[in-house]
Structure formats: C-alpha cells, structure tokens
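Form 7-S
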Amino acid sequence: MNQILVRHKWEPYLWLLPSILLMGIFVVYPVAIVFKLSFSEISRSGVVGSFNGLDNYIAAINAPEFGSVMLNTLIWVVSVVGVSTVFGFILALVLNVKFFGRKIARSIVVFPWATTLVVQASVWKYIINFEYGALNNTFLNTGILSQAINWRSTYIIDFAWECIIGIFVTIPFVTFCILAGLQSIDASYYEAATVDGATFAKQLRHITIPLVRPAMTVSTVLNIIYVFNSFPIIYTITRGAPAHKTDTLVTYLYMLAFSEQRKGPATALSVVGFVVLCLCASVYMLLTMREEGVE
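Output:
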C-alpha cells in the first residue's frame, strides 16, 4: 500500500521529467552561460577572458545611443501590443458572429501571421518605396496625389512605419487568442442577459470581457515577449539607421555583437532584456490574478 502511495506521489514528476530536462538543457543552461559572459571580458574575436564585474553593463549604459534605444523599445512594445490588442479584440468579436463567408474571413485574417516576418517586412518596404512603391503608384493612378511622396523622409517616420507593420502582423495572433476565449463562453449567458433586457454594451462589459480576460492575459503576456524580441521587421526596414535611431534593444545588441564586435556590452544588454521581460510578465500576471481573486 505504501509503495502504491509513493508511486502515485512521484508519478507526475516522472512524466514531467523529460520536459524539465529539455528546459534545463535548452533554456536554463544557455541563460546561465549568458549571465556568466555578461560579467566577463570578451575580445572582438569572441574569446572569453577573466571576470570584469559590471564593466560590460557600465559600457552599455554609458553608450550615447542607449537612452534612445530604450525609449524606442518602450514605444515599440507599448504601441504594437496596445493597438494590436484593441483591434484584435474588435476583430475577434466580429469573427465570432455567424455570417456568410466567416470561414473565408478567418482564413484571410490569419494570412499575415502565417507569413514570415522577413517576407512581410520586405513587401512593406516595397509598398512604401518612394520611386516604385505600390502606395505612391496607387495614389498617383487614382488621382489622389499629383506627385509622389517620400514616405520615409525622416527616421521618426521610418520608426512609425515599423510600428505600423508590427501592429499589422500582430493583430491575427491576438485575434485568434481572444476568439478562442469567446467561443468558450456558454451562449446561455447571452440568452439570459437578452431576456433581462441587457444591451450589447452591458453584455460586453459584464459577460464578454470578464470571461475572455484569461485569454487576453495569455495573449498579452506572449505578445509582450514576442514583440520585445522581434528582430526581422526593424532589421529589414532600416537596420537601425541612422546611427541606431530606429533600433530597439534586440536589434541594437545584435549590431553591437556582430557589426561593431562589442560582444561584452551586447551580452550585458541581453541580460537586461531578459530581466525586463521577466519583470513585465510577472507584474502583469500578478495584477491580473489579483483582479480575479486568485491567490
């Protein structure tokens, strides 16, 4: 009897052991190595030297472009995650309603998410090109414009386009996460609310949003991680030019490591990014769990 109880006690952990081992090998171990490297001297050729304390972090923070890069990262994450969540929620509500061609509409919505980011960024780079871009050609041919416009005249506009592209490719992911939550809501709630005379706004406030919040929490946390770590869009459109003014933290540390051969500060910045992501995800999850009364 005791052997059976012991087996039942440890059996779940045995089933989880393969996943734990994989996590340890491919996640925990690399992260630990990066933490170690961030406190070590690293030559331009990548040779790891002795322990140097916080020198890599100080060098990274004291770089003249560090402040603008962190500001860009904040704007990038907040704008892409915030706007895509709003539009994704609205689109999910629309796609949750039964109408003719709903399956086709859902397929169309998922296309931007199914295509690789490099391809999408390249297409958008062509669309907004000054000389032969589809945007200028369309406006010129329809008579909306009399002459072509330089849609990338300043680095601020360039970065704004990158945020727009990021929003466009992120909306499908949010939409289908929230749509999954919407479809799990029992229709009887809405039927009872309709009988009681509740308007659409009241049903949205008291039924839809509270019940779909777990799905929104998952999509938001994952979205923050994905967007923060997003590399292809910015690298394809501008490569951080001019002078890192359109860089986010991820593209900036890549340029530091592989273009400028400053691997020490780049490693330190990767640790900073990891810590920031962990804090953001933890705070968001704690606030959400507190609102839902979960201990």
